[in-house]
Amino acid sequence: MDKFTVLRGKAVPMMRANINTDDIISAQAMAGKVERIGERLFTGWRFDLNGDKRPEFILNTPRYEGARILVGGINFGCGSSREAAVWALTDYGIRCVIAPSYGEIFHDNSYQNGLLPIVLDEPLVRRIAAAIESAAVPEMIIDLTRCRIVLPDGAEMPFAIPDERRAALLVGMDELDVLLGRMPDLDAFQRADRVARPWVWPDAT
User: Fold this and answer.
1) By the 8 A CB rule, do 147 and 160 touch?
2) Three-point CA angle 68, 42, 106, nearest 5°
3) Which residue among 75, 121, 168, 194 is least crowded, i.e. fewest CB within 10 A of its CB?
């Protein structure tokens, strides 16, 4: 998993509420291999029935095409437990979503796959979306080292995520990597516990 430290890039406002995992990547779009799954992101919205891009869809416009940051509405990523929704976003190039709330499973899947899900109050999210829409160039900075969002006009906005989640993203580790890194501590606990509570360890000698 790639490290997440400072992200600079286009930001796209998609303030629709309840964008679900099927909207992000439909079951039909997941057929076959997952390679280049980002090309199938928002399939039903980006492409018509002939597979041609819909010019009116925001990610198909020159201003927002290739966005790396998505600013969304409430309950982003609701619906199924489809981890491919996160894969589609990150493979497209989106590494951060800012929204007032998320589907619980999508939120957890994001951290496991290097996508930073920032939670802010809805008025703040709408302020960010408005700043993007009014900017000459819709570019922002997400600085995880300082937990700051830098808006297109240079204004900064703080955000917070759990310390363990932040530490793992900064070094590009998922939960399994973090757990494996703690193996010496786990081994030490087991050795001490075998002495203190031998009845818990049937194989203890």
Assistant:
1) yes
2) 70
3) 121
Q: Do residues 106 and 128 lie in contact, with contact meaning Cβ atoms separated by under 8 Å? A: no
Global pTM reads: 0.84
**Domain ranges, ordered by start, for the chain:** 6-173
Among candidates 67, 80, 170, 161, which has minimal Cα distance to 117? 161
Q: Quote the longest CA-to-CA distance of the chain.
A: 72
Reference 12, options 156, 131, 149; nearest CA is 131
Cα distances (Å, whole numbers) of residue 193 to 71, 94, 179, 181, 186 = 48, 45, 19, 20, 10
CB atoms within 10 A of CB 165: 16
Spacing of C-alpha 76 from chain mean position: 11
3-state secondary structure of 98: strand
Per-residue pLDDT of the chain (205 residues; tens, 9 = 90+): 889 999 999 999 999 999 999 999 988 887 766 678 999 999 999 999 999 999 999 999 999 999 999 999 999 999 988 899 999 999 999 999 999 999 999 999 999 999 999 999 999 999 999 999 999 999 999 999 999 999 999 999 999 999 999 999 999 875 555 554 555 766 677 777 777 788 778 775 5
